[in-house]
Specification:
The chain is an alpha+beta fold. The chain has a single domain, classed as Hypothetical Protein Pfu-838710-001 (Beta Barrel). 22% of the residues lie in helices and 38% in strands. The chain has an eight-stranded antiparallel barrel with strand order 1-6-5-4-3-7-8-9. A hairpin with a 2-residue loop joins β4 and β5.
Length: 208
């Protein structure tokens, strides 16, 4: 009996970063207007290993990582550092095919896809679900850096064109921007710094 093939699913993610919270503790009624709902999730400890090869992937706007033994690829689809748009890949065959197409490197997940480790660190993650769909996370890395994100995800079943993905992410980004504007009391102003940027800066200082 032939195995059943499920239609492909594309996971889109839009995120906007923030430096820290502007309130001592994030609560539903911590400012005006109140969150419609706010669910606190269990605190997580995450161990990330990031991989690349001569910056071939990062220069193409892609990050390959192994997070708690699960491979993930985040492929940039527009936006800026602060407000980013990604397509996520979680299937090792899809990740392998993307790496091969982007770098011409053809290797297995058991061999880290032929890539080299470029960063490793642990993150303590606090997270909430606000208004039933917006994920708010605050990450504190084991090297002392902190950064937060407001995320919105959407799964598209079946084949999707690049234009359809871009249209969906544009709407998602507008919704995240409106959410953060509405609840501006919760988020500190100022330019956030990403965890990898902070990690590499620390590595350079350590080797100076």
């Amino acid at each position: 009996m032939a195995s059943r093939r499920f239609p492909p699913t594309c996971v889109l993610e839009v995120e906007r970063k923030f430096r820290s919270f502007a309130v001592p503790k994030l609560t539903r009624c911590g400012g005006i207007p109140h969150f419609k709902s706010l669910q606190k999730l269990p605190i997580q400890t995450i161990r990330d290993y990031y991989y690349d090869k001569s910056n071939l992937l990062s220069s193409a706007g892609a990050w390959i990582r192994k997070r708690d033994e699960q491979w993930e690829a985040k492929i940039k689809k527009g936006g800026s550092f602060t407000n980013s748009r990604f397509e996520e890949l979680n299937d090792v065959d899809d990740i392998s095919e993307y790496i091969k197409r982007t770098t011409a490197i053809d290797d297995t997940a058991a061999q880290n896809f032929g890539l080299d480790p470029i960063a490793v660190f642990c993150t303590t993650r606090e997270s909430w679900i606000a208004d039933d769909e917006f994920h708010i996370v605050l990450d504190t890395m084991d090297f002392g850096h902190q950064v937060g994100e407001v995320e919105l995800q959407k799964s598209l079943a079946g084949e999707s064109t690049e234009q359809q993905k871009q249209d969906e992410m544009r709407v998602m980004d507008e919704r995240v921007a409106a959410f953060m504007k509405t609840y501006a009391w919760a988020f500190s102003a100022g330019q956030p710094k990403g965890k990898l940027t902070a990690y590499f800066e620390r590595q350079r200082r350590g080797s100076a």
